[in-house]
Write a structure and sequence with these properties.
Mean pLDDT: 94
Helix content: 55-70%
Oligomer: single chain
Low-confidence stretches: none
Radius of gyration: 29 Å
Structural class: mainly alpha
Order of helices and strands: HEEHHHHHHEEH
Distance between the termini: 75 Å
Amino acid sequence: MRDTYSVPFQQVLDRITPHLPPYLRKIEATAYGRVCFEFAPFTGCEKEPAKPQSYYDDARLTYVAESEDQAEHRIRTIARDVLDDLYRQANKRWQDAAYVAELRRVVRDAPDRWRAYEREAKALEAAYAYLRTAEAGREWLAAISRLVDAQDRTRAAAAAFDARAADIADAQYRHLYADLGHAQALAQAGYPEAKDWHVGDGWGGYFRDGLAAKVDHLIEEQERHLAKVRRLSGTT
């Protein structure tokens, strides 16, 4: 945006006042010739900020060549730049708020589902670790059976979390250009613990690399290890 040194700010303000939005709380020129804006907080549920039709219809803002009228060319150019910057900044604020608002809508019971997964994942870790103990050797088939049960429960809990994560990932994709990062947006939505969630990637209804896929990989590693143990030990 051009600075306002060459034109008194009040003249610029007079031109743009009819096109200022209701959510603008304050507008002022700084000592450095820039213009600062203060906005009311956005909820993200409002209509996306955009310049009103009156801006485009205002004859006092239409382009005038510098060769035709130097003073009018300067003030109109600066006035349009100020309005462009205002609505650009408002739109960025609104994008962040819309991102947070959508996350509040789609997260739902994801925290409970994540905690359920964590409980099952810890039980799986314990069941797998038990196989390395001497006690497991005395009840090997039973210990393996408990491991399989723990794998199944962990996989089911991961799939249940993915049902929520897919919507979260889709929201993250659709708000890709918001200034807020994923963890920041989730924290502002009321879920600071979400920084530890494995959400995966989603776009346009597609979802990949979710928690269930991570668990599948873990189970495959466990089963490859057990198969190697059987082979090297000569057990069936």
